Amino acid sequence: MTVAKQIDIRANIKKYFDMAFNGEPVIVPRKENKNVVIVSEKDYKELEKARNNAAYLARLDLADEQIRQGKVVVKTMEELEAMAAE
Q: Which SUPFAM superfamilies does the record cross-reference, listed alphabetically (predicted)?
């Protein structure tokens, strides 16, 4: 991981973009801790996928807990078909 000032990023943007593209995140410190990180699109998509997977697993855990607590609604196939017809 590399840390670079904004002025250095501006002066050498290709260098830092290439670093990020090659898998090395670049941290850009800013005032009031409003830092940013430059990463490749591939790495960003992997982070998004991991975040989405974590959210999905949390929903599954919640559903599992609700089932264990008996907070379920049971419907027969006929009842579901009747609901769909309405």
A: YefM-like
| CA-atom Rg of the chain in angstroms | 24
Amino acid at 45: K
- Residues spanned by the domain of 79: 41-86
Cβ count within 10 A of residue 43: 16
Whose CA is closest to 21, among 40, 44, 45?
A: 40
Report the candidate in 30, 38, 36 with the shortest Cα–Cα distance to residue 12: 38
Contact 41, 47 (CB under 8 A): no
**What pLDDT, in 10s, does the model give residues 18-70?**
999 999 999 999 999 999 999 999 999 999 999 999 999 999 999 999 999 99
